[in-house]
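Note to self: the last two entries modelled the partners one at a time, which told us nothing about the interface. This time every component goes in together.
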Amino acid sequence: MINYWPLLGVAVVVAGFALRRNPMLVVVTAGLVSGFAAGKSPGELLALLGTTLVSNRTLLLLAVTFPAIGVLERAGLRERASAWILGFGRLTVAGLLIPYLAARQLLAMVGLIQVAGHAQTVRPLLAPMAEATATRRHGALDPASRERVLALAAATDNVGVFFGEDVFLAFGAVLLIQGFYDGQGIHLDPLSIGLWALPTAISAFVIHAVRIVMFERRLARRLPEARRVREPPAAPPGEVG
Amino acid sequence: MLTLTHVFYGIGALLAGTAVLDLRDRRWLQAAFWAILAVPCLAGDSILAANKAGTRWPAQAMGAGVIALAVLASLIRARKVVDDPEDVRARAASAARLGNRLFLPALAIPGITLILVLGARIDALGITAWIEARQLPLIALGIAATLAMVLGIALTRARPVHGLIDGRRLLDSIGWPLALPLLLATLGGVFVETGVGKAISALVGEVIPTDSAVACLLAFGLGMVAFTAIMGNAFAAFPVMMAGIGLPLLVKLHGAQPAALGAMGMLTGYCGTLITPMAANFNVVPVLLLELRDPHAVIRVQWPTALALLIANLILMAVLVFR
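The predicted structure of the combined assembly is written out below.
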């Protein structure tokens, strides 16, 4: 007989987010509810929380880049990134982000997932470059447009890494899939699983690249005054970040 | 030999140092938060080893720490970081002085990671003799980031303590959401342990019309998206949906090809990752890193890509898995 009571934990997650409670509290409450509903003692439950926290600490790994990035940002890395990209006179936002998407997907396909990311490359390099390019190309950005350009840079990194990962190498997801089937008595070669990710990887590239182009067209329409000002602004765009 | 444990000592030192600086600034809640978060980095291995050996109090104390992290997070008020005009001028001057040399340490992070990961595949270099092979990409990132910090400090003539001071500034700009992915993964672990997955797959198996292959495929794909969105992670959704629908109905009953179904099913789940705030490391952390005002800014630009790709993926699956 299956015990359905632990599902209360899922309900807590959904309700907590719907009511906009602090997500950290929601998550821990859901874990406790689900644990008690499964009949665990407080001692067992605390030990379970503690050990799973430690086993998942890899998720803190992005902090390892903070000292290096922090030191360089104090020395003006983001300002330099936007000034440098302005040296490419005819570059568009799409011309910056689409090659980044392709590179991120290809690197992830050969297992190089950690070489880029929100802390490593998006905040210090890609985001200021995208903002500077958009400003030069389409004129001063209003705050809402600026937010959207920066968010698009982050989204492009996400799409690139998600749909490039695991095509050629047995990392994370492929191993999980193989492991699941193994446990069910179906034995598969990792590469045969990975190659099936290729059609989706190509679709993801095409779809997101088209969206980047459309985004830039909309941006140009939203900021019509830029069309009249043919000359690029002399000074690099104001403060970044 | 360098292992992931050494990398975590580095992160633990940054977190503990941040806690000390926060104590000095009388920011008690933040200090407590970072101090607790330093524990799994500095003492994680001993906690797991003790638990395995039957000494459970360290793991239980860490569990109490998890609850404390959540309570502290709900008490900490976000502080708007204001950029001092003096700093802005200093950064502009420094950027002009150092020019493109500033890119060198920044590109050293991906560059050195790349060299170590690729170099490890050449046996003659013997890289795997001093870096643990199993976790090599992560350890390589740690080494690269440390070398980049040293390079950066040398290049900008900063004092070495700026590694901590400036690292803390980034930690502060993110704040407690840095720990959210960790807590979500912890919740995933608890859900597995308490049988939530089994309960969901039993429920799902009962409600869908099993004689239609396309209906099963739709239920599988949409279930992956929905459950990934709730859990924030396709890895948590995959075993649940596979055990409930994928294996019994699609593979065994309708003859779907397991490799294709597994790979594309997982990627269908990733479409759910793009649209959920539960995937905090991808959708919330960048909002804070880029100091955006709208907490859902990244999701707002991602969802059309996710939706189009979901449709494309469902069509691809319908065409490819039943061959």
